[in-house]
Predict the structure.
Amino acid sequence: MKAKVYVNLKSGVLDPQGKAIQHSVELLGFSGISDVRQGKYFEISLDGSMDNQRALESVEKMAREVLSNPIIEDYRVEIET
Amino acid sequence: MKAKVYVNLKSGVLDPQGKAIQHSVELLGFSGISDVRQGKYFEISLDGSMDNQRALESVEKMAREVLSNPIIEDYRVEIET
């Protein structure tokens, strides 16, 4: 079983890294881009010791408490069986 | 229109950052985790000047040439209208 956690900055929070990427890709000739925001992505492999529901709860807790900063970041969890 | 780009290390490539995260979450009491791998996630907002097909091509090119290192990383592109 695999869990995927996506962490990105909340919409009101400034993202200088994203702005730098946007500036770079524009310099490199890519056009039509109005915004770039960078986030993080975690792939967590779980051994089969938990059922789907418990795995989701455990990974949600991990995303909230360890992988993201809930003051400035949102997270999303997906479980793949 | 929004594009999402997910970049992660290829499966054979060592991921010390992921290993460090795995070790930390285990110390914090989370169990049942067999592997953690960290990747990157980009949200790219596009102005409406391109149709879906052109947007996908442009973002695929960007992912391949700028946002990922194709020697050690894989990428995945999603377009949301």
Remarks:
- The domain at 2-80 of chain B is CATH 3.30.1280.10 (Mth169; Chain: A ,).
- Residues 52-67 of chain B form the longest helix (16 residues).
- Chain B touches chain A at residues 6-8, 18, 21, 24-25, 28, 30-47, 49-50, 55, 58, 61-62, 65-67 (CB under 8 Å).
